Amino acid sequence: MVGGLGDRFTRVAAAHAVHNGLTVLPQTEKFLHGTKVAYGILVQSALLGQDDVLAQLTEAYQRFHLPTTLAELEVDINNQVEIDKMIAHTLRPVESIHYLPVTLTPDTLRAAFEKVESFKA
């Protein structure tokens, strides 16, 4: 179901890469794959500047009790060590996030996470 909520590139781009990045943090082990991918779809929307999609998904996620913040995945956006570790893993050369038509750096990915964290539908 989650894969159908994003754009046509969702299944092969940032959503799964963000999931993979989250898996390096032990506290996220208890969350289902699809739950972490759902959060990744939000990050992808932020990376692509799709505020309209981000708004629609955030509203839908709240209805379906899907995470709209890292805190809901027990990750603290202010914990630089954890965020840096997650970003580094998300941006590994083998990750599908590099299919996105944007320039990706740790700073651009961090900005996307921060946008999702502060987004209000």
From TrEMBL:
<dbReference type="InterPro" id="IPR016205">
    <property type="entry name" value="Glycerol_DH"/>
</dbReference>
<dbReference type="GO" id="GO:0008888">
    <property type="term" value="F:glycerol dehydrogenase (NAD+) activity"/>
</dbReference>
<protein>
    <submittedName>
        <fullName>Iron-containing alcohol dehydrogenase</fullName>
        <ecNumber>1.1.1.6</ecNumber>
    </submittedName>
</protein>
<keyword id="KW-0560">Oxidoreductase</keyword>
<keyword id="KW-0479">Metal-binding</keyword>
<dbReference type="GO" id="GO:0046872">
    <property type="term" value="F:metal ion binding"/>
</dbReference>
